[in-house]
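Render SURF1-like protein in 3D.
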Amino acid sequence: MYRFLLSRQWVILTLLAVLLIPTMIWLGFWQMHRYEERTARNDLVARALEAAPVAAESLTAPGEKITTRERYRTVTAKGRFDTDHEVVVRRRTDADDNIGYHVLTPFVLDDGKVMLVNRGWIPADGPSQTEYPDVPAPPRGEITVTGRLMPDETTEASGIKDLEGLPDRQIMLISSEQQAERLGAPVLGGYVVLKTPEPKGDTPEPIGRPGNENAALNFAYAIQWWLFAAAVPVGWWFLVRREQRDREAAENVEPTRTEPAAV
């Protein structure tokens, strides 16, 4: 009755269905894993942002790496900005995807150590970007700053290449190790995205707080893949039944009788 399933066409179709089912089930589990990862990351970021501010040196020290649990923690420090050794970070965008720079200013603490502070975004001056841009000055004298603690930037994490031969006082990635070499001073690991004091005027433009990743989308994709996996055998059986009905209908059709031609 279903001998047609042994035909080349149906063998290929059946094998394809057999392969699709586990593949779609695996994709559903992969999306669910991404959902759990993103949910955990969102929870971690939310806890870090809501935590009470602590002294920067309680979470980082020269040569130390910032862990995922320390990332985004609000830290405070007392000292002064060293604008003589300020640099800008190239190819950074604002909220509207305009290309410019991040302003990275050393902040000298009372004990002589240096904390790198990303003061925000400024627009690029012209298309060449070879000259040092006009950077608004930070507050002078001894002040207290607060900001979000961030790990050093790497090519692997950011996708940005650490190019050589850049114009003076311009960098591609924020690295406390490289800045310690340049400054000849002990630099705390990672850097801080400035929250307060807020810049006066329009620039540097403050860097917004991190948003939540869309974990719900991964959950929806997981359900979608599993529904697709369930639909494959249903669709296969529907095609088999339709093929069988078409074959039975073709067998039951009587041949058309023709009248003999008139002599």
